[in-house]
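Re: the request from the purification team.
They wanted to know what the chain is likely to look like in 3D before they choose a buffer screen. I agreed to run a prediction and write the result into the notebook, where they can find it.
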Amino acid sequence: MNGLSIDYDTPDTRDRAEHLARQLGLPLQGPEHPGGQVLVVTPERLELRQTGPGAPGPVYVDFAGGRLGYRDRQSSPRNEPLARAAGLKKGHRPDVVDATAGLGRDAFILAGLGCRVTLLERHPVIAALLADGLARAARVPSLSSTIGRMTLISGDAVQWLSSHRTDVVCLDPMYPHRDKQALVKKEMRVFRTLVGDDKDAAALLEAALGAARERVVVKRPARGEHLGGRAPSHTLPGSSTRFDVYLTPFSPPGEKGRG
């Protein structure tokens, strides 16, 4: 995490910033940012900011507001491609591991539809943003049941999956971009600077296939190659992204497995 530091917006948030700096092993920054990325404790939330000329706006986790909050109220398994890919059906809400949790959007959608979701995030700064967003959302009465079905674990997903089983594993690995337009979103710009590509994505798929009783769902760019060169059982196409579904040998009756 070279070049990353912790800062705070008001004197009231200094103690929390100092605690976070010790927890993450990062320096506490002064009031003037020399450039680079800064994890800022504000009175409202935790933000990751890219400083310098032309920097995008802050990145933070917000389950209650904006498009994601509205989407939670409108979601159903029928109108969510992710839910269909994950195998949600009437009377069946699988336990899900989101092994590349990121900002938690996919996990939040599945939890809102009734799944218990374990969020795995190996980058400690992204995990800190997630923890902050979950804590704030848990205080919103209308979201408490959804957030109650979400469990965050900070650590390496390949290692965790090697010793655990679940019904469904979802993967959305960072991949090398060839299209410059793919970097427009500020979250992707900041994420790429912070974490880079997931070079072990193929190994993550293998670990997921060993852990999933029902299926593994991989989100890919619409025209992207299959993860690790492994063809899926079937695909749910979309305009910009698609879901590759890998049924495992332990799929429920009536579904054909990989073997």
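For the purification team: The radius of gyration is 19 Å.
Please add any questions underneath this entry.
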